[in-house]
Amino acid sequence: MDNSKLSFADQIEWLKNHGVGIEDEPEAQKYLKYKSYFYKMISFVKVFNSTENGEQCINNFNMLVDISTLDMELRYCLLKVCLDIEHAIKTYLLRIITNDPDEDGYHIVQEVINRDENPEGFKRKLFSSVSHYDNNGHFIVNEEYQQFYDNPPIWIIIEISSLGKLRSFVEYLSRKRPNNKTLQQLRESFKYINRLRNSCAHNRVLFNKDALVNEEEPVPHNIYSVLRNDDLTSSEIHTPLLLQISLALRIHKTMCSQKSHQHKIDDLKEWCTRMQRNSDLYQGKIFSDLFNSICNSITIYSD
């Protein structure tokens, strides 16, 4: 496929030429016009119909629609998990700092900023949600936050920061408190949970290359050992999507209330039930293994 625009009829032909059988072409066109769009749908085809063993995992349009729906619904469920974690991390960091008599809430921010290889650039990133560049390229902080820019306190940074911007603070505190097991777990899991959070928040498909086993991508020994002890298999741990989901559920169970965790597990179990509705569509081993492993992880962290 080149970069030219395709008509809806051309989109149907592309799918057929890539192994996706279509029984009702007018209905398929209607779906692509009003319910989803071609360039998202083909991402599944490009990944799962191009596996090393040559298997045509997605062989009909109904299956493609179901995969797209399952992906969307799983994203919605997991986004709630990630947002809970984000809130819990912010609360936890503030609790640590508030209870530390040697920390005024300003020192930690200056320490973290100064440790960055580009302190001013890092500070601007921290304030990116409440700032803009004017027509002359000048960096302008919104009026209500200008007074905090030169010497920002941690409570302002936490207020204006999304999850990814908190990583440096988690790493800093984990080094200062090496015996704090929660901080160590957060530090080790942070990048995986943040990847999942960004995929869900920015409406990126989950069933992409991250849903395939990748033995070449190293998994830190501590994470591997912990997840093996939780009864995940080696291949599940080396499947990036499963690794992200499992660590997110593990941290959510650790940091969030039992009631909140149970609500999210119940939502995910409903997804597992929904997944079974059209199980007859999935004859290929890749999808059946993936879906079963996701549900297995949900079961593991529901106890």
General description of the model:
This is CAAX amino protease. One of its GO terms (molecular function) is peptidase activity. Pfam families: Abi_2. Keywords: Hydrolase, Protease. The chain has one domain (8-105, 153-300). The chain has a two-stranded antiparallel ribbon with strand order 1-2. The model has no long low-confidence stretch (mean pLDDT 93). It has 303 residues and is mostly helical. The chain contains 15 helices and two strands. It has helices at 8-17, 25-34, 38-48, 61-98, 107-115, 119-126, 143-149, 154-160, 167-176, 181-201, 221-229, 234-237, 240-255, 258-276, 285-300, and strands at 131-133, 139-141. Strand 1 (131-133) and strand 2 form a beta hairpin. 64% of the residues lie in helices and 2% in strands. Helix 9 packs antiparallel against helix 10 (181-201) and helix 14 packs antiparallel against helix 15 (285-300).
